[in-house]
Specification:
This protein has two domains: 139 residues, PurM-like, N-terminal domain (60s Ribosomal Protein L30, Chain: A), CATH 3.30.1330.10; 137 residues, Phosphoribosyl-aminoimidazole Synthetase, Chain A, domain 2 (Alpha-Beta Complex). By secondary structure, it is α+β, with helices and mostly antiparallel strands. The protein is built from nine helices and twelve strands. The chain is globular, with a radius of gyration of 19 Å. 31% of the residues lie in helices and 26% in strands. A hairpin with a 6-residue loop joins β1 and β2. The strands form two sheets. A six-stranded mixed sheet has the order 1-2-3-6-4-5. α2 packs parallel to α6.
Length: 299
């Protein structure tokens, strides 16, 4: 089964068990959104890193810890939220060196403190493969969470930063989650939809388009590429952890884009538009692309 089919299956069989009105967004977005109090909603996400898939054996534990936290923070950023609390699942081989574990926990605690995040519990178990899971809770002003499903016809499509080359450059271990950038964009551009790019622009753009019942029409010549990357790698490489957002034309101005780029030292590139639902979730220069992004399951 493909990843989205598994997620759909979970959505079918997992009952939220919440009273009417308590669940704002369930399975299928970067985070679940749950009513919390009169002022805030909770945003809840969970990400796993597996040795051999998300990092290689021998990668320093400090870098692994940093990435584990950053991928979760990137999900919270995509919702326009701020991090609050987290719990950790640490599954490791019985012979894991004490030095590795100590360095991992120290680095994770230090990084969490930098973002004002408290890690309040979790679980430690023996496992054949080093597998690390962080579940993170954040807060967002009530009703202000940015969902994948909010895009509207004729919205402009933007991405932050440059795409591709994350493995070659090591950026997949050192990227900065776009928390402050996302909050600025939410306030000043009022995006209709937003998500982070983990599986490549083609794959993730298709997810946003499906959630919004539209087609995303991309222009290859506008896609910002990391140094040394061709278009295919920029579209399909994955683990960019930049922001993908759709913005109503009336909320955009070049002045605001210039302010953003000066404030954060980060590009904000117009790469396409949302158009009426057609025969494909995503088009590249008017055609269904022959490439695809990273797929966790299926072919």
């Amino acid at each position: 089964m493909k990843e989205e089919e598994l997620i759909g299956l979970a959505g079918k069989y997992f009952s939220p068990g919440l009273r009417a009105g308590e669940l704002s967004q369930g399975i299928g977005d970067d985070c679940a959104v749950v009513r919390f109090d009169g002022r805030n909603d909770l945003v809840i996400t969970c990400d796993t890193l597996c040795e051999g898939t998300h990092f290689l054996k021998g990668t320093p534990s400090e870098k692994v810890a940093r990435k584990l936290l950053a991928v979760n923070l990137s999900d919270v950023a995509a919702m326009g939220g701020e991090p609050w609390l987290a719990v950790l699942s640490f599954a490791a081989p019985r012979g894991i060196p004490d030095k590795y574990a100590r360095a991992f926990f120290a680095a994770l605690g230090k990084e969490a403190e930098k973002f004002g995040l408290a890690i309040v519990g979790g679980d430690c178990v023996a496992s054949k493969t080093l597998t690390l899971t962080l579940t993170l809770l954040g807060k967002v002003r009530r009703g202000r969470a940015l969902l994948r499903s909010g895009a509207r016809e004729n919205d402009m499509v933007f991405v932050t930063g440059r795409l591709g080359g994350t493995l070659k450059s090591g950026r997949h271990l050192s990227f900065e989650p776009r928390l402050a950038e996302a909050r600025w964009l939410a306030k000043n551009f009022r995006p209709s939809a937003m998500m982070d790019l983990s599986d490549g622009l083609l794959e993730d753009g298709g997810k946003l388009a499906r959630a919004s019942s539209l087609t995303m029409d991309l222009r290859g010549g506008l896609v910002p590429r990391a140094e040394g990357c061709g278009l295919r790698e920029a579209l399909t490489g994955g683990e960019d952890f930049e922001l993908l957002l759709t913005v109503p034309a009336e909320n955009f101005s070049e002045r605001k884009r210039t302010l953003f780029q000066k404030k954060f030292g980060l590009e904000l590139s117009l790469v396409g538009a949302m158009i009426p639902r057609g025969g494909a979730d995503l088009l590249l220069d008017g055609k269904k692309p022959a490439w695809r992004g990273y797929a966790h399951f299926g072919v």
